[in-house]
Write a structure and sequence with these properties.
Blueprint lengths: L1 H25 L8 H14 L1 H10 L4 H18 L9 H23 L6 H11 L3 H12 L2
């Protein structure tokens, strides 16, 4: 009997997780929100489901997406810190790096889903323009000027 209950629970656990994620996803409805409302809503829902999201992101660490994002992030950090004597990055710079790495992965996903019709160079030029890539270069220059 107990084995039946355990097996039943194990079989239902993915269904429960899928149901829970569907319920949470409904809180991420952004259609009627402006840009600021979207961000505030996103991070407020993130706080509300902190434990669950932390666990889900932890489980993602073996994914290719995580590995690419981590490599992008580390590369950007190394570039910023390459000329700095004191190896530390401000919170603002950390957020900027995370934003650029995440956005680049989002564009990679878009590019793949849309048939890769643009060249890598064309996509890079668009990313650089849209994301104000010069901001990262400015952070790098500011860090180098501290020497």
């Amino acid at each position: 009997m107990l084995l039946t209950v355990i097996l039943s629970f194990e079989l239902r656990q993915p269904d429960l997780l899928a149901y829970s994620l569907k319920e949470i996803a409904e809180e991420f409805h952004f259609a009627d929100s402006n840009f600021e409302e979207v961000h505030l809503k996103l991070f407020n829902v993130g706080l509300k489901y902190k434990r669950l999201l932390s666990q889900l992101f932890l489980e993602e660490r073996d994914s290719l997406r995580y590995i690419i994002r981590n490599e992008l992030t580390m590369g950007l950090k190394q570039d910023i810190l390459s000329d700095d004597i004191n190896p530390s990055i401000s919170t603002s710079s950390e957020i900027g790096i995370a934003a650029f790495a995440g956005a680049t992965l989002g564009v990679l996903n878009w590019w793949i889903e849309n048939g890769m019709t643009l060249s890598g160079e064309e996509v890079y030029k668009e990313i650089k323009q849209v994301l104000n890539w010069e901001h990262l270069e400015k952070i790098h220059d500011e860090m180098a000027a501290k020497e």
